[in-house]
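So, could you explain this one?
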Amino acid sequence: MHQPSRRLTARTMAFVLAGGRGSRLKELTDRRAKPAVYFGGKTRIIDFALSNALNSGIRKMAIATQYKAHSLIRHMQRGWNFFRAERNEYLDILPASQRVAENKWYLGTADAVTQNVDIVDSYDVDYVLILAGDHIYKMDYELMLRQHVDSGADVTVGCLTVPRAEASAFGVMDVTAEGRITSFLEKPRDPPGMPGDPDRTLASMGIYVFDWKFLRELLLADAEDPNSTHDFGGDLIPHIVKNGKAMAHKFDESCVRHRPDAPAYWRDVGTVDAFHQANIDLTGFDPELDLWDTNWPIWTYSESVPPAKFIHDEENRRGSAVSSMVSGGCIISGTEVRKSLLFTGVHTNSYAVLDHVVALPYAVINRSARLKNTVIDRGVEIPTGLVVGEDPEEDAKWFRVTETGRVLITQPMIDRWSAAR
């Protein structure tokens, strides 16, 4: 009997690695894992990988968590609880729960999958898509899956093209003109150039496609290897490059763009500087990342809040926002907001000025505060008259100041500042 053809994503599960500490985000990850960090006014970082999977047609997903996972798990339960098992849809949250041995948490990215082999088996899929849960991008995974199947690869690795000078922060690869990977090096000091373009390097996005039967055998063999670190980039991918067929898939070929000439947008917002810049970029006239694209929406948990409100219209006490994004539930009361991004429920008060500020949900900015180039953590209350972003030496006494002069403020920092007054 003839079987109707189905999209490859219908025979695929997405396994999202979301256990990352995110230590370069400093105090922003004191209470949450990096994939649970807020981004873009309403969403969290992990929503991008999950939305890409959903929009691509994947309806079976698993999320491996480890570090400070509570806010991430709560977000999954609130915002991603629409999968229905009776429709063959599943979203499993897989905390490191010592399922294999009492002293064994997830030892590496590959081990996170190995410890859940039985759960992946139960999904009855042909392909497994391994995703990092901590990057901002839009990508149609069906196109990568199609290349994987057509090429007969053992693994297909999602790749970015990056300047060679910046490539030491990534896993990088040498490829042939046909895209076959001939070497895979984890964060090398001297990255190789590309064929025909020696100043640029192919870097791994931490996205891999495998046939599940092949990956299953590889994982079980790796688990028995005492010399392995049980990591995809450090162990499994180099092994396949040496002994099998590894192919590179260029992100440029499956990036979802809001217009044909738009650049391929991908960001690792893993530092305070990068996090601040990527959020502020969204306030531009035509941002590279289009959050308004209804053809490829970013799904998330949306709180039920009233619209944003702007009040007072007097000289020097006017509730206004210019070149900014202001989320629902915000009250801009007599505050001047410029080139800033305010998340849900931020309240500002009279005579305050916000310039290039990223304020996470439910932050409160009291009267006459002046803030510039600042990230405010969730729920922080900025005291009356506080000035930040004008005197780096003074800022650094109390707050986290980056090399470029951006300032991160958390409530414990404010408490120390207040106690010294």
About this structure: The chain has ten helices and 29 strands. The two ends are 80 Å apart (CA to CA). Residues 160 and 203 are 5 Å apart (CA to CA). The chain has a mean pLDDT of 93.
